[in-house]
Amino acid sequence: MMNPKDFFPVGKLCELYDLEYSFFQEMNEFGLIELEVYSGERYIHQDALYVVEKIIRIHRDLHINLEGIDVVMNMLRRQEVLEEELLQLKNKLRRYDDSI
Question: In the sheet that 7-9 helps form, which strands lie side by side, from edge to edge?
């Protein structure tokens, strides 16, 4: 069940960022964000606001369309996975070195 405190109305985001509602619909269609419907209004979970702000900055500052943003976001997610794997490998190597 949706807890309204955890969600932010898309209409309010449109006002705050001076964006058309269609921009958020397109982000949803690309799978960049997930919109929830409650009482006929669309909402974004508060945990996704950081991603929304990042997407808006990329779109505005770098003039990248949503197709390009989709590629950038996938690359950033892949980078995060690789950095986590590298950290785990460094920790294993450190434990190995410490035991010798």
Answer: 7-9, 41-45, 35-38
